[in-house]
Amino acid sequence: MEKEQITQAKKEAIINPKYPRAATYDAAWQLENEDGSPCLWLMEALARKMNLKPGMRVLDMGCGAAMSSIFLAREFGVQVFANDLWVSASDNMKRIRDAGVDDLVVPLHAEAHDLPYADEFFDAAFWVNSYQFYGTADTYFNEYYGKLVKHGGQLGFALPGIYREFDDLVPEYLAKHWWKEFYYFHSLDWWTRLFRRSGTVDVEVADDFGGDGNEIMMQWEPIPDRMRLVRVDAGRNMTWLRIVLRRR
Ligand SMILES: C[S@@+](CC[C@H](N)C(=O)[O-])C[C@H]1O[C@@H](n2cnc3c(N)ncnc32)[C@H](O)[C@@H]1O
User: Fold this and answer.
1) Distance separating alpha carbons of residues 225 and 122, to the nearest angstrom
2) CA-CA to 86 of 20 to 30 Å: which in 62, 92, 118, 134?
């Protein structure tokens, strides 16, 4: 995807006092490596609800440019498997080495239906702006992730979503800006029902980032110039969702 110009205004906007840990990371680095979300804000807010301890082994699934993986390693001293499909492991390795955390972060290139991990390998797992691309099928969760995290471990999701499911097609006011794959945007009720039905996890947290989900979307929207959909929605239905599960 073509990157927009990194302006001073965008640099200032990405340094958000609500996310003080993320604010210590270089603004230009965050903008150069973003892929549609303020992933450090989301990871910081998600991690507040997770019980991370140094030395834990965690999965950052769909990590993109591995910024969130670097963040987890630096902030919490955890060992991170930075798994992505569109970004190569070699590209991520360069960023991981530059960030000085190559002793803690392992870059991997693997597709979400062909994962190389042993059952119960991870203490915890994260998905930031990623699970919706491959995880909406009823049977997917138990087949691929339910078993990767140890019993009692947590699984954290940050998902772009909607407050209310559409009755049928996307409403008229959004139709012009809608891509057909955006039907993977779902509500909190939709996602939590999917996970509850798995029968293998309990839902510990399910919220719109403590009421900040839409604000995060609106604050982020002017930073990459391409998010017209969010601008048109103007706070009516689109939001970020946070879900934390615990494996039984
Ligand atoms: C929108 S990007 C988000 C990247 C990063 N988490 C962030 O928030 O900046 C979605 C990521 O999901 C990953 N992804 C999408 N489909 C996937 C699949 N089938 N298997 C593994 N990863 C996938 C892509 O490689 C991509 O980097």
Assistant:
1) 37
2) 118
Residue 173 has pLDDT above 70, yes or no: yes
Question: Average pLDDT of the chain?
Answer: 94
Q: What is the pLDDT of residue 2?
A: 52
244 touches ligand 1 (CB under 6 Å): no
Q: Which of 130, 143, 220 to mutate to test the pocket of ligand 1 (most atoms within 8 A of CB)?
A: 130
Number of domains, the chain = 1
Q: Is the CB of 62 under 6 A from ligand 1?
A: yes
List the CATH number of the domain containing 87.
3.40.50.150
Q: Is the pTM of this model over 0.90?
A: yes
- Is position 1 within any domain? no
The number of the ligand 1 atom at minimal distance from the alpha carbon of 33 is 9
For residue 140 and ligand 1, the question of a CB distance below 6 A is answered with no
- Best residue among 33, 87, 133 to mutate for probing ligand 1's pocket (most ligand atoms within 8 Å of CB) is 133
Tens digits of residue pLDDT in 48-78:
999 999 999 999 999 999 999 999 999 999 9
Cβ count near 182 (within 10 Å): 15
pLDDT, one tens digit per residue, over 110-120 is 999 999 999 99
Look up the domain containing 37 and give its range: 8-247
Evaluate if residue 153 carries a pLDDT over 80.
Answer: yes
